[in-house]
Structure formats: C-alpha cells, structure tokens
Amino acid sequence: MSKSPQTATEPPRVGAALQALRQAQALSLDELSRRAGVSKSMLSQIERNQANPTVAVVWRLANALRVELSELLGGGAKAGSKSIELVGNHAMPSLSSPDGLCRMHILGPIELAGQFEWYELTIQPGGAIESAAHESGSREHLTVNSGSLLLSAQGGEKLLSSGDTARYAADAPHAIRNPSKEEVAIALLVVVHQ
User: Fold this and answer.
1) At CB < 8 A and 24+ separation, what contacts does 56-62 make?
2) How far apart are CA 162 and CA 165, in angstroms?
C-alpha cells in the first residue's frame, strides 16, 4: 500500500522525540519551558502531537536540550541514544569583568549551573576576580595552565605557577589575581556547589 501524497508531505511530528529527550535529561515541562522560552501548554501539545511547532520553536527546543535539530525532526540520532555532543566555541558564552581584565569562558552545560560549573579563566596583568561567599560547603579547584595567579582564600594567600592546582573552600569571600605586570594567566576553575 503506497502512501498518499498528503501523508508524504506531512510535517515531521516531533512529539515523541521531544518527550524522550526531555525525560532522558530528567527535565520537567516547567524546566524545559523556562530554558526554551516556550509555554508549558505548547510543549504539552507538541509532545501529544496536537501541535506542530514552527522552525523557530524547534530551534529553541533543540538549543535548550543541547541536541541537533535533526534529533527533534527524526532524521538524526534517536532520542536517548549515546552519542558525542560537540559544542563549538561560538556556543560557549563568556563573561568579562567591568574593567575588561578578566574573562570567564563558561565550559560547563547550563543545566549544571548552580551545582557543578567549570570555566577557562583568562586574567590580564593586574586583573582580579573577587568572589563573595558561595553557599555553605562549596569548593573550588583552580588549575593554572600558564602564567601565575595569587589565590586569596580561607584567610591565606598562595602563589600558583603553571601546572599548580589549588583546592579550597569557597563559602567565604575569595579572590584570584594575576600579580604579573606582563604575563597573561590562563587557568581552569571548577566550582562544586553544595
């Protein structure tokens, strides 16, 4: 039995793929709605195949779920399958200090923010990142890749050189400074919240 022309040209139904991807990431409709900027009622209708989303909505959902558009449209990897997710440099946001001397390149996925975060720090000579206390029990792990950094934490200071790692409580004010007058410092910072 051949398909009718209407069936062959019917838009892809993304409901099952959306639901499977959302559940695989343990996301509620509320959380996905917040991340994607799509109403909870629209998400529910899409998952039940009562509505076909626009390309713009599919794109927002794919970004919120961190998957390729093809996964939602049924042409890519199957929902829940194990695959390698490649995130290009352009998709990794950065934060800069008001004076422009410090840049934090956010490497961790947004869904882990507030739990487990990691950054690449680039601190120009004389630059400093000063942090207020994080929640009780939080810890940071700072590894210097090049240059040197002066860490102030727990009432003390340590000078870290390339290759050094410092682990310290981050539930009190702390600061990371580049004491050099010439050399840019690059480091990885991992923050584990409790």
Assistant:
1) 58/14, 60/36, 61/14, 61/18, 61/32, 61/36
2) 9
Domain segments of the chain as ranges: 5-73, 89-192
| Entry pTM | 0.59
Measured distance CA(128)–CA(103) in Å, rounded: 10
pLDDT digits (tens, 9 = 90+) for 73-121: 764 444 444 577 777 776 678 889 989 999 999 888 776 777 888 999 9
> Span 5-73: which CATH code?
1.10.260.40
One of 3.30.310.50, 2.60.120.10, 3.90.79.10, 2.40.30.60 is the CATH number of 89-192, namely: 2.60.120.10
